[in-house]
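#onboarding

Welcome to the new folks! Below is a worked example of what a typical request in this channel looks like: someone posts a single protein sequence, and someone else replies with the predicted structure as tokens. Don't worry about understanding the tokens yet, we'll cover that in week two.

Example request:
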Amino acid sequence: MLDNKVITLKELAQGNKKTIHHIYLNLFPKIKSYVLKNNGQIEDAEDIFQKALIQIISRYNVNPFEIKSSLEGFIYVASTNLWKRELNKRKIRVTNSKVIELLSEHDDLVLATLEQEKWELFQEKLNEISENCRTLLKFFFQKTPYKKIANQLGYKSDNVVRQRIFNCKSQLTKAIQNDFRYKNLI
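Example response:
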């Protein structure tokens, strides 16, 4: 685990060799494992990891920010998001017989950064709603059947669960839309 995440993020952005070596040594194997398990090759994992670090460094250099969770978790999420994005692009390339214009590396990096910022806002606002709503939404995002949620959480029926999830999603949506960063991200 990286201890002082603010200083380490700054050190990463400044190119501190010790910090970068530590990140590669401790985090790259996890990213490699994720990519290999999800239809990728070692070269893909290396590219994705590099892109994630470049994305984070570029973003920090433009507008220094603080990470609320661990730096390792932040890099892991950025990397997995980039890999999911890459898989989606590959799917489009394979199934589409038309000529498509590929995004430039810069445009792709900008879009990935925007996606990451949206994810961070979502996570932040999710943590601000009630514990009950977080639990319900966790089940909802995992596609747990309403009847099972009702049984596990002691609700009278799946209709009550459906209604509560609707209310929780509304609270989360409202919290996100009321944040000043929302307009910049859409």
